[in-house]
Every structure is written in C-alpha cells, then in structure tokens.
C-alpha cells in the first residue's frame, strides 16, 4: 500500500534519468562514429578519386568546418525550438549526409556531404551536454554528463569495428567491390544506422525543464522535474528557482557573452580555452590518421585497423574510469592527472619517431622505438580518456550561468571544432616535415593545459546549475 518503497522509487527515477541522458548523448555517438569512419575510408577515397595528400587532408578536415558552423547556430536553435526538436533536425541532416557520402560522383561532392554531416555533428555536440546537464540531478550530473564522451568513444570503437569487418569482407582492400559499391563506400553509408537511432530516441525523450520554464510551459516543466527529481522535491520551489534565474533573461544572443577581457566574459574564455586545449594535444590525429600512420611503419592495412580498434577499447576503459571518479574526486584533479600523463606519453612518442628512417619512401622505426611509439600512443589515449575527453564535455555542460548557457556552449563548441580542424588539416604536412617535432608540439600543449587548470579552472563538483556563473 502507498506505492513502492522510497529506495525503489529512487532507483526507478535514477534509471529513467540515466535512460534520457544516454538518449541525449547519442549525438556524441554520431560524432565518434563519423570521426573514426573516415580513418578506414581515407585510403580508398584517395585511390578512387586519384587525389593527393593535400586534397585528401582537406576532404577529411572539411567536416570539422561544418561542425563549427553547426555548433555556432545550435544554441540559438535550441533556445528557439527546444533541445529535443533541434536534436531531431541534427539526426535528419546526418542521415541524409550518410547516403550522400556513400554515393559521391566527385571529390567535391563528397566534401559537400561531409560538411553537412559535420554541421549535424556540431549541433549534436552542443545539444547533448546542455540537455544532459539540464535534466541531471546535481549528485549525478558528472557521471551523466560523462555519457557524452562515453558515446563518442563507443562511436569510435563501433566505427572501427565496422571498418575492420567491411575491410575483411572485401578481402583486405577497401577499394574492392562489394556488390554495387566499393568497401569504403559501405563504411561511410553505414553512418545511416546510428543517425536513425538518434532520430528515434530524440523523438521520445522529454524536453529540458529549464527550456520549458523559459518557454512558459511550467506545467510540463513540473511533470519532467517530478519524473527526474522525485515527489519529495518541492516542485513549485524548483520552478520558481529556475524562473528566478531566467527572469531577467531574454533569448540569449552572442552579444550577451561580451565582457571586459578581449571582448568576452572570463567564463566564456575559460570554456573556449578548455575546448582548444582538448584538441591541441592532438587526440584526433590518433582517430583520423592512425591507420595511415601504422601502415607507414610497416603494418598491413587490416592489422592497422585492428590496432586502431584496440586504441578505441583503451579509450572506452579510460572513459569508464573518469565516469567512476568524476563525482568523487572532482573535475580538476582528473584534468591535472590527464595533462601530466599526456605530456609524458607524447614526449615518448616524439622521442620514438626521432629514430624514424625511410626505406623506398616508406617510414620505418627500429623495433624498440616502434614498440615504444605504440605503447606511448595507447598511454596517451588512456590519459586523455580518463581526463580531458570526459571532463571538458562535463564542464562545458555545467560551467556557464543559465542565462548564457546555450550561447556560451555554442561558442566553446565552435572553438573546439575549429581547433580540431586546425590539427586535422595540419597533421599530414607537419608529419611529412618532421613527425618527431609534431608530437613534441602536442606534448607542449599538454604541459600548458596542466598550468591552465592549476591557475584558471574552478571546481564545479556538486554545485547546482543555478549556482554557476
């Protein structure tokens, strides 16, 4: 009588919140999937269209410019239409682009569809963290916010597994035919499946209660808050608390981010620099070019895809470590450990590649340095995953005050995509010039990220969103 016990109802609510947070993070899965799928297809694209390294570098990186544009506009769209409706738009754009990427008739046509896919991913990269932060109870917000990065690394792993399976099915050669298409085309077309999954889940999860209050739909906001926070919470008080934060707020604009430091508020600059450091340590070099890199040191195409997949498993393990610790030890300690570990691993990789030599135009490493490079690369992935991979997305979702959250997150995410583009497009010529110095460049940024956390980043563990800013 009287319903299930309080503990049981609490577990049921936590299960529900976990479900909707996971659904909101599926956009991160698209991000990871698209990021890694090009790793397996890039050689096939280059051969199919007979283009050089500069052109293929542009085609790989151009999606990131689309992502920057998508991230830039996502905040305003989410504040105008709602978080879930904008998620559905992103899912449709990604589904259409997946079909286009699988059936290109020219290299510029492929580049266009990659820009469209990038725009969809950029939108999802803003919407996921914002939505999760707004539906998650403070005690669990760090772990639930970690779902964004978990979805990204799972997307990377699944994509690399699909690439490996398709490559194996095609006889170990991505330009072999599989029915009417070549293997690399099937790799890109497979992105349609997660896009449709995202569309379905974005259609069934509830809208953010903070958006509902801002839109004047307080009755619906109370229902969502009751489902995610429980009957014991004073719903009128919670709605009033949210309303008080939003009371003086109009729909956020980029002008609301203006401040005394170089034209922006300090908290916005903090988010931008966090985003840039996350990319300037060179993490996406591992996921965009790792198969090409390992092939350059004598590993076969199929084996290089398998090594890339093993790096993704390490990425997942590191992400789970971060999820287990983020609400216990806090955000800053994990960032500091990650920065130190990445700096050391990248320095070892730089040392290893300083011993590289060329045989018939193919880069080779001595056995000891080759083993050290492989270990260092995987250590780098592990330290990134348990720190900057997860924590930056958690912080971007929660660190900004409510009146500017969507707009500020859009700017920070756009900066992240632009930084990603810079690293992606510059890696091929830098690696061709001096691979050892390229990794040393990333090691320096990892060391600088440590100092940035020490002097600038504030802890947000356990604080309500209404207390931020």
From TrEMBL:
Subcellular location: Cell membrane
GO cellular component: plasma membrane
Keyword annotations from UniProtKB, A to Z: Cell membrane, Membrane, Sugar transport, Transmembrane, Transmembrane helix, Transport
Cross-referenced InterPro entries: MFS_dom, MFS_sugar_transport-like, MFS_trans_sf, Myo-inositol_Transporter, Sugar/inositol_transpt, Sugar_transporter_CS
Membrane topology per record: Multi-pass membrane protein
GO molecular function: transmembrane transporter activity
Recorded superkingdom: Bacteria
Domain Major facilitator superfamily (MFS) profile, chain residue ranges per copy: 20-461
Membrane-spanning segments: 14-33, 53-75, 87-107, 113-132, 144-166, 186-205, 262-287, 307-326, 333-353, 373-396, 408-427, 439-457
NCBIfam families: SP (TIGR00879)
Protein name as annotated: Sugar porter family MFS transporter
